[in-house]
Amino acid sequence: xxxxxxxxxxxxxxxxxxxxxxxxxxxxxxxxxxxxxxxxxxxxxxxxxxxxxxxxxxxxxxxxxxxxxxxxxxxxxxxxxxxxxxxxxxxxxxxxxxxxxxxxxxxxxxxxxxxxxxxxxxxxxxxxxxxxxxxxxxxxxxxxxxxxxxxxxxxxxxxxxxxxxxxxxxxxxxxxxxxxxxxxxxxxxxxxxxxxxxxxxxxxxxxxxxxxxxxxxxxxxxxxxxxxxxxxxxxxxxxxxxxxxxxxxxxxxxxxxxxxxxxxxxxxxxxxxxxxxxxxxxxxxxxxxxxxxxxxxxxxxxxxxxxxxxxxxxxxxxxxxxxxxxxxxxxxxxxxxxxxxxxxxxxxxxxxxxxxxxxxxxxxxxxxxxxxxxxxxxxxxxxxxxxxxxxxxxxxxxxxxxxxxxxxxxxxxxxxxxxxxxxxxxxxxxxxxxxxxxxxxxxxxxxxxxxxxxxxxxxxxxxxxxxxxxxxxxxxxxxxxxxxxxxxxxxxxxxxxxxxxxxxxxxxxxxxxxxxxxxxxxxxxxxxxxxxxxxxxx
Length: 538
What we know:
The chain is an alpha/beta fold. The chain folds into 3 domains: 21-122, 2-Layer Sandwich (Alpha-Beta Plaits); 142-444, CATH 3.40.50.200; 458-537, Immunoglobulin-like (Sandwich), CATH 2.60.40.1220. It has helices at 3-23, 51-59, 73-80, 105-109, 142-153, 155-160, 187-191, 214-223, 252-266, 299-309, 391-408, 414-423, and strands at 25-32, 85-90, 95-101, 114-122, 169-174, 195-200, 225-226, 229-230, 237-242, 271-274, 313-317, 340-345, 369-372, 376-379, 385-388, 458-461, 469-474, 483-488, 493-497, 503-504, 507-511, 518-525, 530-537. A hairpin with a 4-residue loop joins strand 2 (85-90) and strand 3 (95-101). Helix 8 runs parallel beside helix 11 (391-408) and helix 9 packs parallel to helix 10. The longest helix is centred in the N-terminal third of the chain and has 21 residues, at 3-23. The protein is globular and about 100 Å long.
């Protein structure tokens, strides 16, 4: 072969490789610049949010913001006009999830309203009907394990008082809910029309009863109801979202979580329970580093905090990474500052060996609480009982506990509910980065997170306390003549303040820098009466 022919072949191969690279279809996130010309208005939220979603915001005093407005339809049309396939739009991040050939990316980046394009998964979205073989699960006598799950959290007391999640709407994110639609322990949900919404984000349709049984087992701890098995909040309303592709791990699954959260918000969910977490991916360039578990970096972490901003309680697995020498700590979105991340314990309250430890990269206590995750009683995809281990199963137990608790205290905001759950932990007076605030137990609840006596005109803030100064004000009492007693949750006095502190007639500033993180009782002792408050210091 002469030199000219060799050169021709090499050039042809290079052009062929380049062409195929440009023709490769991948999935990207496209970030948009603004919502300036959107046809939607914050004055007419019912055009893009359900009445239930609007009411949640109203009940909790949450204002609508630009992040609630849908993506500008004109921008969606513009991106579609390039030849890209728009899979989903994210109003919270003002972004589009698209499927496109690599060759179109420069054209999309050149649009005036596009601020950036990032690869989030190679290849096209998975074909419909993907399957995965069922995981092995342990077997054990069902009754004793199920009773233990209840007694650890005091769910037996909540159920005994009539609180079983009725009227609370819960959304579950997972890799598949195979068998939920065909087995007896879940039949009551369909009989009562309490399965209100489903969506398969991965494949883009409504079928979620495929792919995997991980979601089935996690969901069963809350929703199943059958002779011998009672879910934690089996009378709640439910939404199921398939967000995880079992055959691969890429950043797109974080965006799937985000899209599901927006859908759940719009449909009026109160609680999100997600037994999922992210730190490493098949494409190592997408991996997170340990110092990025800081509550602000990971896409899914930001999504979880945005959901909390909308008044949703987000409960998530802390992770099962304790034995990983290269990681060991929590995974996203457990690092978010507004979620309840859940570790796992066994029947005796001992920490599960693989339960991820904290703190977060910025030093916050993680996980928030723990629950039974070692040999948790679950329902399999064939409707039979079994056991499974992992924070994937302790987290939904806490979510179910939260649903019952919220039913009992419907005036709580999501953050008041979160703080109450922490305050009920059996280690709330000395939280750490293994157990967090401990196992929340309903039997010790006090009616209000703040004012225990109903004393009018007395306010403590900020509560929860994240700095060192606690401010006490009163519209009616002379605070210049008050003794202040700080006690732990068992009634032991931690500190006392008398008349030697900075104060005026109706205001006291208390320096709490000596206080460790935890839950405390504060007594204000006046001449003729005392008023008691519960406070939390982070």
